[in-house]
Design the sequence.
C-alpha cells in the first residue's frame, strides 16, 4: 500500500480479541491499533477492490478507512462490532472516491484505470463464456447509480445480508430492497452468472 500506518505489533504472545484491542487502543496502545489494522485490513482491501474495481483506489481507501476508524474509535459503542463498523467506513470511503471520479470526469480528466473488474477478479478456472458475461455485468453496473451498484455488489458478490447492507449504506431495509430490485432490473438483459462471495485472486 502507498502509505504505512505508524504502528508496530508485538510478535510474542497471542493477540487478544477485537473488543480487548479496541479497549487498549483507546488507552493509547499503538500496538493494539496496529493489531486491528493487521487483522482487518486484508478483508477491507478485498471489499474495496470489488467495490471500486481499482487496486490503486482500493489501497488508498483502505488506508483512509483505518485512519478514520482509529481516529474516531471512541465513537464505537460496542467494541466487539469493530469489523462491521470498519466495513461501514470503508463503504463511505468508496463513495467518496466515486464522487471524486465523477468530478474528474466533468473536468475532463481521464478516468481511473479499472484493473479489478468482476471479470478480472474471477478465478483462473472461469471459462471464457462466463468471463464474457461478467464483462457485461460490470458494464451494466457502471451505468447504474452508485448506491444501486454498491448494494448489488454487497449482496451478490460479498454475500452481505440485507440488514448489513442497510447498516453499511445507512438506508432503511425497504430502501435497500428497492435499490437491489432496480439494479437487478437493469441487469435483466444480461446473463446472470453465479457469483460467489470471496476475495480477489
Sequence:
Amino acid at each position: 500500500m502507498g502509505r504505512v500506518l505508524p504502528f508496530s505489533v508485538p510478535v510474542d504472545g497471542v493477540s487478544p480479541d477485537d473488543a480487548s484491542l479496541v479497549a487498549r487502543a483507546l488507552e493509547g496502545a499503538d500496538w493494539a491499533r496496529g493489531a486491528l489494522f493487521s487483522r482487518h485490513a486484508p478483508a477491507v482491501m478485498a471489499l474495496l477492490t470489488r467495490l471500486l474495481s481499482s487496486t490503486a483506489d482500493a489501497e488508498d481507501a483502505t488506508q483512509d478507512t483505518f485512519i478514520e476508524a482509529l481516529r474516531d474509535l471512541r465513537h464505537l459503542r460496542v467494541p466487539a462490532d469493530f469489523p462491521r463498523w470498519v466495513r461501514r467506513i470503508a463503504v463511505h470511503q468508496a463513495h467518496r472516491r466515486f464522487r471524486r471520479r465523477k468530478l474528474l470526469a466533468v473536468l475532463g480528466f481521464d478516468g481511473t484505470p479499472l484493473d479489478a473488474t468482476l471479470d478480472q477478479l474471477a478465478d483462473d478456472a472461469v471459462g471464457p463464456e462466463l468471463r464474457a458475461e461478467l464483462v457485461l455485468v460490470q458494464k451494466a453496473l457502471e451505468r447504474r447509480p452508485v448506491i444501486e451498484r454498491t448494494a448489488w455488489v454487497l449482496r451478490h458478490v460479498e454475500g452481505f445480508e440485507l440488514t448489513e447492507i442497510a447498516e453499511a449504506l445507512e438506508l432503511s431495509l425497504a430502501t435497500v430492497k428497492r435499490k437491489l430490485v432496480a439494479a437487478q432490473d437493469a441487469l435483466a438483459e444480461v446473463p446472470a452468472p453465479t457469483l460467489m462471495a470471496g476475495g480477489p485472486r
Remarks:
- Confidence is low (pLDDT under 50) at residues 1-12, 193-201.
- The radius of gyration is 18 Å.
